[in-house]
């Protein structure tokens, strides 16, 4: 059987015992289909299966097809049960259907990588039905099947804990039928900042703890790059909800996978008014609610030092997690920061939240259990508050009006840039607006000199918030040749519009444009590949007088 791994590897393991000299084979079709459908699926491979299941006949074949069809009908309900979408079904009904599904799987297939999750849900269902012996049986089977499917690795440890004590399963803990497996958690002690870090951890304004700059930090400088201490994938959270597990009980389970020193550091991140330790449901719920942030793949991650940044609606640090990959969070200075100044980030996601009103910002913060923000923007009142509201409405109006670059919008985009540079200062948003202005300038006047300025500013803003990396190649290209951003119907110059299959205009990241450019160069060659004297058509025509066309309306060219 194939066992896919997150790193892209694929491990092949034996689903059953194999004798010496016996052929090793895997399944190319949907295993739960009838024999006739499986054979039709194999027609594209031009061979007929002669395995033991396909060689059955008569009553045995009918029984096998009926059992597989029953499993196919049960599969959606089992998946919905795993994902917590069957709210009306009783534990007894779910356990009965899960047992029937597992029985068919054991009889027809022997083993499957999906089985440990199904068996794991049966453990909690059995506990919910007050059947501890059944729960113990399934906990032992889940460990055995997990080892058979994946071998012995670090991820199997939690199955060993369930086999040793089924009531320690997070689902059982969440519904009050058990308690977490004992965890060694030292007294709370936050680790010192990494060597060479330009910040320290200490008291800040408002009787809080935060990060303080220990030296001047220039705009665009990397302050911190950190991988999550704990990561919970979307799939894990979905399957956990199916077994009655909450994020808090799942977080307690994840505490087994980190070191005691990391547990001690996480203990410092819970709210001061929550005296429960992080190994209790209330303490873990507090830790998750106030510190977990969404990642690129809809994972929920908890960062050790990143969780120490306090919020500000006008932050001086920007945090992005799509630059380094693997949910590594990078923190860079958005502005020049003086020594002794607090480092702050925005708790709002990087979207259009910079145009939110104060009531909207207060509501979003309250969703995370935070009180009213005390930053300089939220502290405004009187004429200053009225002025900033007026400017925010103007920013919102222009931002929405210029979402699609077109002719005649350059002046408004430049006004928007001026307003954002004064009030928002966020290079992540400024880069997007400069790219809009670049396209608008080229639509107004191809080969516009102003377009070059916007292309360079977009590149500079992205380097400030992301650093210098290979993902900025498209911006570098546009900073050298801005006219490549002209729409296909208006594009002129070295790369004709008809050769570019994926125009850059309207695309989010410009990756498709770079691909089209490489395709064109591979097909037609670059300047270095051409013989001397055979440049582009634009180079050949340089200096020649333009020939008048003889084409007339309604006639033919002679």
UniProtKB/TrEMBL annotation:
CDD domains found in the cross-reference section: SET_SMYD
Q: Where is the composition biased (Basic residues)?
A: 541-558
Q: Where is the composition biased (Basic and acidic residues)?
A: 522-532
| Start and end residues of each stretch annotated as Disordered | 522-558
Q: Per its UniProt record, what SUPFAM superfamilies does this chain match?
A: SET domain
Specify the superkingdom.
Eukaryota
Domain SET intervals: 197-348
Report the protein name in the record.
SET domain-containing protein
Q: Which organism is it from?
A: Kipferlia bialata
